[in-house]
Amino acid sequence: MAHAHHEHGSATTLKYAFMIIAGFMLVEAIGGWLANSLTLLADAGHMFLDATALGFAWYAAHISTRDDNQSLSYGYHRAQVLAAFVNGITLAALVLFILWEALGRLRAPEPMNAPTALIIAVLGMLVNIVAFKLLHSGEQNMNVRAAMLHVIGDMLGSAAAIAAALVVYFTGWLYADPLLALVIATVLGRGAYQVLKESGHILLEGTPDSVDVTEIRNTLTSNVPGVLEVHHVHAWSLTAEKPLLTLHANVEEEVDIHSTTTQMKDILKKRFGIDHSTIQVEHGPCPDH
Asked: Of 54, 111, 192, 274, which has the fewest CB atoms closer than 10 Å, so is most exposed?
């Protein structure tokens, strides 16, 4: 019951933070277009990345207690990974657009409505501060802490938009807008690359970064009495937080299979953080060879 209450608190905090960031993202995108501020548009793209991350965190907290069903035996966890991959592609396209526009404006600077851009950028900073305080005061877990880092990144983007608007307003130097937009695009591009890399790796059922197959094999062989050899070790993940593993274990004839399997699962859970594992125990040669 306490765990369920904790997850509900996390989901509520993440939901409100998501609504705040996503809502202002639309305001900033419209304001950037009206003010002809490329920096604001780039920051809106950065807020889109972080709103997506907050949305996934909210979704993950929301479904953490949901049961699986016959049609989806692993539940709905992969939906957030698929959505992340699609969003990564969208963000990559957005980065290319920002780069194209920035290079064009460096060749031929365009006028910007600096007062409008400044007001929206300042409001964006205030919104990010509110979202950060909301996350900081709510239930603290890995999901929420990661979301806080994303909001901090949004604060830096808002700071760049404020700086661009101030420079243009006081000096009229129009190059500040595309130059700072390039900075935000670089940050956004790095984020898009990470999203595509991580989600693509999961969708391809690659081995999680936190799982060392060789170490698992050696640890089980040396720490569980009666285990002669471990082979056919396959590790993948439903999401970044949910690693899965299957393996074959060749054991001595006289060992208690239930006790041996329990010991192996206990090691996998406590030492390697793998809650879900499938172990095939064998006497003699592996039937799959």
From this structure: 111
